Amino acid sequence: MAQPSQATDGMDSVPALLQRNATRFGDKPAYREKEYGIWQCWTWAETEKEIESLALGLINLGVNEGDFIAIIGRNRPHFYWSMVAAQSVGAIPVPLYQDSAAEEMAYVMDHCGARFAIVEDQEQVDKLIEVQEGLHQLEHMIYIDPRGLRKYDHHKLHAFDHIQQQGRAAHAEFIADLKARREKLTYDSICVMLYTSGTTGKPKGVVLSNRNIIEASKSSSEFDHLTRDEEVLAYLPMAWVGDFIFSIGQAYWCGFCVNCPESAETMQTDLREIGPTYYFAPPRVFESQLTNVMIRMEDAGRFKKWLFDIFMAHARKVGPAILDGRPVGGWDRFKYALGKIFVYGPLKDTLGLGRVRVGYTAGEAIGPEIFDFYRSLGINLKQLYGQTEASVFITLQPDGEVRSDTVGVPAPGVEIRISDTGEVFYRSPGTFEYYYKNPESTADTKDAEGWVATGDAGFFDKENGHLRIIDRAKDVGKMADGRLFAPKYVENKLKFYPNILEAVVFGNGRDACTAFVNIDLTAVGNWAERNNIGYASYQELAGHPRVLDTIQAHVEEVNRSLVSDPMLSHCQVHRFLVLHKELDADDGEMTRTRKVRRRIVEGKYDDLLTALYDGSKEIFTKTEVTYEDGRKGYISATLQIRDAAVVPVKAAKVAAE
């Protein structure tokens, strides 16, 4: 069994890393935030002072060691300061998804027993007030944005800057206490508690120690040669482990600058202005960016589109090889260099990825076509495989060994084994401590030797030793004839097309595969506008005959591409329908990290699934939906069911077991 790593040079907590950074390179930028169109900047020395005054204010407010503090809001320096200030006083930060409904927040806060909450604005304050009767332990809320809160009862509601002012005023009184609490922190102290997305049930509180976060951050930073000169854009949910590692773990270990956009609406503009050197995005972001590119090219002039098509075809042929340093002919290199001047360079700058030295995607599998598109532009995009319980990193892709169908080799310090059933297990210094108040799930997930069950099915590629993930173990099944059923692989191929936002493939225990499809309203709406097709709603556009024809063409193209994969050629989609509504987290159909809750979708739309398999050509359905203000309603529609052409393949051998 791997021996636990020990801290070196006294760097045994995130607050200790903060003290080091403020001392060693205090005048270097630590945070930037765009506010009212202007970038504000804080150095590491200034950041240390901001966090210290907040920590003193928290002590003054009555925060005790071991308390849980909920953090709710978008990516802002104040919230990162809040998490480190909480750690500094011996408390445990618990970031929540800011778009969660009040009831979802109530579950997490009640489960961890949070006495304090630091929130962004009136919207989040109102959510907690709505459910406060069930949160008997909640004593104080701290808000950052005061707009709309002037007439609220402020006995237990406090302005963020007021708490800092109180901390500064009480400096002499509490500084010794703060230093004592900070010095108590060890590698084994709890650093953060992050809740799982709850794909299959209630979210679980994953307890991560300083050892988990710092060791994972250190080894991954060394793997990709990250330095304090990196620039990152913090825009992903703060409740997600990836943001915590990139924006706190690695940022504090390396000392690089974290940039916070002004809003979700300005994110793309802010991304271009910052030009990050180290970038992470889940597949959905890359899919969305590609969709926008394709929409713009459809609107472009004939010559511009011809130029784009010519050079992108060449980029797909030689771009990844040039990026990996493999041999490429002189003429091909010259043509690629021309493409860099006319197409690839301007396109990367438009996407905000012109300076990216290391880029990663994870969270779920990315379609190989999408992955290869970005690498063909010369963007060093790689895949990593990880989970909250691992402090992110299980595998990483070394430079020069990047492939779209694998997720790389074990990350530094990580051991991996494949069980007899094909499930992936790992253990590492980043392995979580336990699930909070859930010893049964802890024991089911992590054994006495530290091996963690990922819930994913996979195998090591015999050619290069890289890990290949097939699908979630619970989603991998068998067709009626015993052949492998792995829906995610097919779904990602479908989502490569800009017109398809989401797809859910069915086939476990069946004779054939079928699919639900969500259209991408932006892409399809743009097409409708260009073709003078009027529509009043998503539902109307999704049911338009020409839209259905387009989706059918995409499905059939995916079917043709599947023939070349002997393992999954039988997973071609025989029938499909386009759903009358987008799958939505508010309706329980997706998690807050935009992962499909497959079992819930299957149960909720059982009538539609039945129709896909009983030969129906259309079906009337009525579905409950949740509006933005929380009200419930119903939408009904008659959906057309299409048959898709499939390519005959020779029956694969059925596994003996």
UniProtKB/TrEMBL annotation:
GO terms for molecular function: long-chain fatty acid-CoA ligase activity. PROSITE patterns: AMP_BINDING. Residues 18-436 form the AMP-dependent synthetase/ligase domain. InterPro entries: AMP-binding_CS (IPR020845), AMP-dep_synth/lig_dom (IPR000873), ANL_N_sf (IPR042099). One of its GO terms (cellular component) is membrane. Coiled coil: none annotated. Keywords: Fatty acid metabolism, Ligase, Lipid metabolism. The keyword Ligase applies. The keyword Lipid metabolism applies. PANTHER family: AMP-DEPENDENT SYNTHETASE_LIGASE DOMAIN-CONTAINING PROTEIN, LONG-CHAIN-FATTY-ACID--COA LIGASE. This is Long-chain acyl-CoA synthetase. It comes from Roseovarius azorensis.
